[in-house]
Design a protein that fits this description.
single chain; alpha+beta; 5-stranded mixed beta barrel; 5 strands; about 35% strand
Amino acid sequence: MKLIKISMIFLTVNIISISNVLADHTGVITLYTLTAQATNQDRGPCITMSPAIPGSGYACLYKSNLLYKELNALLLAMYTTKNSSCGIEWSGDDVSGHKILANINCR
């Protein structure tokens, strides 16, 4: 009986830690867009990629991101380059169902 209880506690801890992991995707930025009528005024640029980002197909950068200016510049530069591969990580979905960008790295 004690072994079952220990296993259940371990499983609960794993579920909590898994929910805090960022999701990721790699591809080439195919669209960089700014929308003045965004549902959330804190939202900056949104991108699409090839291959497509899961869900709505969009990932958006929010001004609340501590590296907003730097990441925005990186997104725009990589979009104009067209052939650079970028990895993105998101922390969840916004009210429009778009991924909320947390980290970006490109080569």
